[in-house]
Every structure is written in structure tokens, then in C-alpha cells.
Amino acid sequence: MSLPPLVEPAAELTVDEIRRYSRHLIIPDVGVEGQKRLKNARVLCVGAGGLGSPALMYLAAAGVGTLGIIDFDTVDESNLQRQIIHGVSDVGRSKAESAAASIREINPLVNVEIHDTALDRDNVREIFSRYDLIVDGTDNFATRYMVNDAAVLLGKPYVWGSIYRFDGQASVFWAEHGPCYRCLYPEPPPPGMVPSCAEGGVLGVLCASIGSIQVNEAIKLLAGIGEPLVGRLMVYDALEMSYRKIKVRKDPNCVLCGENPTVTDLLEDYEDFCGAVSVEAQEAVVDATITALELKEWQDAGKDIFLVDVREPAEYEIVRIPGSTLIPKGEIISGEALAKLPQDKQIVLHCKSGVRSAEALAALKAAGFKDAVHLQGGVLSWVKQIDPSLPAY
Ligand SMILES: [Zn+2]
To answer: Which segment of the chain is annotated as a signal peptide (predicted)?
Structure first.
């Protein structure tokens, strides 16, 4: 399926632009006409992180006239392994500001619009409505569903991508011509089922593999060339070095873009819809949560505790709380590890940030360990409050 160009061509290209974009201009399918469409285009990139970095850099180099960047985060040292739009001197700086500075260096002809704020249900429509196309580089389900819903409600196309370890996916969602994200994934995964990149890791270069597919699709849509990835899901496996395309059909029963939609406005609360932690975990942590300071006091007072680190072995290698025993969450949830746990000691569970340990705590309580507790904020809060010499990751 080929689609008409999203954008009308600009009136003309300047001499500077003709020189700069000459390698585009001599491609017959792009030509002066296609480049004029890119010049007139307004593209918003949601997130200036792993996917947003290569996407923004190539969109800028390609001569997209106006690039919007929305990101409320600041650059962290652990971002530099993959978020190549930021450098060492940007650590601590706003990601949106840092990305804008890099874009100006790559191509000063691009007009950059910075939205240094979190995308939410109150601003998403207004921000999206200013752009022709959205590139979604978000890393969490709540924002992903909100981006999808807003795009469908506004009739906007968007290019979606996701990355995890060695696996990437990409597609173009445009309800007018094909399925939306909810047609493919009607329900968010159960809380705790799909680890984030912060929990599970991501190969840095995977961001470029998927981010460049997103830019490729963006250029095709803006200029109206080729076969856009509408109704098809690209699945990339970096270890196998395989690309597969899976057909995705529009779901006539889709609650958002189907024949009888029941979702006709943005949801009140996307975090709630995606459930940061399960109901069981939310219940389990009530009156069973301690702080890093309390844990330190217990240790210093010689209290007989059994401290269980429920993270994965690779994370345990990076940093650990003194005295902890590694038992990954999966072994607790499956029941496999229950026999390893003492009945006569105070059990304290912890993970990186407190989400996985809450899930594990629910399983322990259900198995009869009524007094077990978990550490609020996990290793990260231990490092922050007790021992800043340890690495946060
Ligand atoms: Zn749909």
C-alpha cells in the first residue's frame, strides 16, 4: 500500500539547502519535490533517549524543517552507552536542551521546538496537534498507550519502536489506513511481566537499528514514497541478525479504532491502566515496607535478618547490599526457592527499585511468610542513603 505524502512541499529550496541535501536530490524518488516536503514537515519525537537519539539526529540531517522534542528527564551517565545525541558534558543537563544543541550542530537549518515537560493527558493533544507526524521513542507502557490513543483521536500517524536487550520492533500506526497499537496489543502486559531496559538492559546499538527504521518510515510518510510499515510489524533479532515482517490487521473490535469504539477520549490515568505493580503487590507492601535507614539500623543492631536480593545474577555482580543472598524473583514466584528461606529469621526482600521485591513479597506472604518485609526503593535507595560510594546503575 502506498500512501499520499503527508506534507505539501515548501515553496523553494535555498542554494545552501541544495548544496547540503544534494545526495537526496539526485535520488529520483526523493528529488527536489521530496526534499521540499521534508523542509515543510513538522515532526515530534517523544523522548530523547535510546530511540529518540538516533531518530532526532537522522531526521535533522535529512532536513526535516521543524523537529519537536519532548522529554522531561536529565542526562545520566548510564544513558551515554546508547543515547548518542548526548555527550559527557551534557550529564545533568535537560535531555531536550542537550538534544536541541546537538541538532543545531548537525543542521542549523532545522527549527527545533523544545517541550521540556512530561507528556500527560492535559498537554498531549495540544502538543501533538502542532505536528504532522509523531515518532514514539517512549520506554514505558503507560506513555505508549497514551501516545497511541492521542494519535488515533487526532487522526495522526505515528512511527512506533521498542527495544529490549537484543530484540527490537517497529511499525507505523495510522488508524485511518490500518491498525493502531491497541489492535496489536489490546491489553498492557501484567505488571512486572515485561522488564524495562533499566531492569533488563539493552544493547546500545540496537537503538540505532530500530531508531533508523523509524526515521526511514518517517521520511517515506512525509514524502509519500515506498511502502510504509502500516499494517506490518517489523521484528528484529540482533543475535540471529534476522528481520521478520508480521502482518497486523485492523481489529474491527478494537476499543479505540474499531467499528464500535468504547474508548472515545483519553483515559483518566494511564499509569493506573498499565498498573505499575499488581494489586497483590500493592496489598502485600502495606505495613511490610522498610527504608534503607531502617535496614541499616537492623544490621547495626545485630538483628537476625535474612536479606534476599531478588534481582538477576548480572545485577548482583554490579552492586550488592552487604550480607544479601541472591535468589532471583522468578524462583520465588515459581515456589522453587521457598525451601531455601529460613522460618525463624526476619526476611527482608530487595531488588533494584522496589517493584520486583513487592511482587516477590506478595508470593512469600501467600506462601505463609507473614512477617516478611521489603526494602523501599531497593538498591538505589541503599546507595543513595547509606553508601554513595557504590555504583547506582
Ligand atoms: Zn485499533
So the answer is: none
Please state the pTM of the whole predicted model. 0.83
Residue 258 CA to ligand 1 center (angstroms) comes to: 6
If you measure from the C-alpha of residue 251 to the centroid of ligand 1, how many angstroms do you get, rounded to a whole number?
6
Q: How many A from CA of 168 to the centre of ligand 1?
A: 21
Catalytically annotated residue among 180, 207, 254, 351: 351
> Residue 192: which pLDDT band, with cuts at 50, 70 and 90?
low
C-alpha cell, 223: 514524502
Measured in angstroms, how far is the CA atom of residue 333 from the centroid of ligand 1?
Answer: 33
> Which grid cell is 313?
545474577
Strand order of the sheet with strand 289-290? Answer: 289-290, 373-375, 346-350, 305-309, 325-326
- Which residues, 6 or more positions from 366, have their beta carbon under 8 angstroms from its beta carbon? 280
Q: Which residues of 337-347 are buried (b: 16+ CB within 10 A; e: fewer)?
A: beeebeeeeeb
Beta strands 289-290 and 305-309 are unpaired
**Distance in Å, CA 53 to ligand 1 centroid:** 28
For ligand 1, the distance from its centroid to the CA atom of residue 1, given in whole angstroms, is 18
In the reported structure, the alpha carbon of residue 392 is separated from the centroid of ligand 1 by a whole-number distance in angstroms of 39
| Distances in whole angstroms, Cα of residue 378 to Cα of each of 66, 125, 307 | 41, 36, 12
Report the C-alpha gap between 157 and 180 in whole angstroms: 9
Catalytic residue among 183, 197, 207, 257: 197
82 Cβ neighbours under 8 A, 6+ residues apart: 50, 53, 202, 203, 204, 205, 206, 207
DSSP string computed for 45-104? EE-SSTTHHHHHHHHHHHT-SEEEEE---B--GGGTTT-TTS-GGGTTSBHHHHHHHHHH
Catalytic-residue membership of 351: yes
Residue-by-residue DSSP string for 19-49: HHTHHHHTSTTTHHHHHHHHHH-EEEEE-SS
The number of CA neighbours under 13 Å toward the Cβ of 296 is 12
Per-residue confidence (pLDDT) for residue 169, from 0 to 100: 98
Apex CA 270: angle with CA 267 and CA 272, to 5°? 110
Element (H, E) at 150: helix 141-154
- Output DSSP code: residue 156: -
Lowest pLDDT segment from 3-17, 75-89, 181-195, 371-385: 181-195
